[in-house]
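Q: Second attempt. The first request was missing the SMILES, so the protein and fe (ii) ion are both included now.
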Amino acid sequence: MTKINIAPSILSADFGKLALEVAEVERSGADWLHVDVMDGHFVPNITFGPLVLEAVAPHTKLLLDVHLMIEHPERYIAAFAKAGANLITVHAEACVHLHSVIQQIKKLGVKAGVAINPATPALAVREVIEDLDLVLVMTVNPGFGGQAFIPGTLRKISQIAEWREQLGLTGLHIEVDGGITAATAPLVVEAGADVLVAGSAVFGREDRAEAIAEIRDSLK
Ligand SMILES: O=C(CO)[C@H](O)[C@H](O)COP(=O)(O)O
Ligand SMILES: [Fe+2]
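A: Got both inputs this time. The predicted holo structure:
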């Protein structure tokens, strides 16, 4: 059976006590830590850059899963790798030379992912899928936490899972991001996702261990 990884997104954490928030979700059963970087151009919101990642990294052993929602990601990949990223995901929509950006990430010894927005077809990753460690299917429009899951994204998850199967890409992760709760988690896992980002569903709750356990229990 495929291991399902739960990746709390620090976008919904209290930034005033980030190290404590990260330590708490680690103790509470998180598998990865999802780090949302927004530049106010690719998406309307602004979050943080490599200096904040560098400050958080020593406080956790969780895999640092960096989601770059920025224009010209190629300009910042080296800085995020140096700051401690274990996996860097760029948006297909933000890369003119997607193949080259993926190679740039991998040359730094970091795992490489490509994200696609709800309106972007699965085909946007087809020509590079064999070079990837992860495909991120956005299940909301990127920019903000706490939005409702878009059900139409399920068929893209299934399509990518079908390519994973056909091509024998057993190590390829399919991650979903946006609106993941105990109600939507079974749908995305059924479609083929194995990394579930959860921001408000975890950090929006007083008891983070209970929140993570509820998502896990929904998959039984
Ligand atoms: O990339 C993101 C937004 O662009 C976040 O990771 C995502 O929104 C998580 O938040 P929530 O689980 O509350 O929907
Ligand atoms: Fe994200």
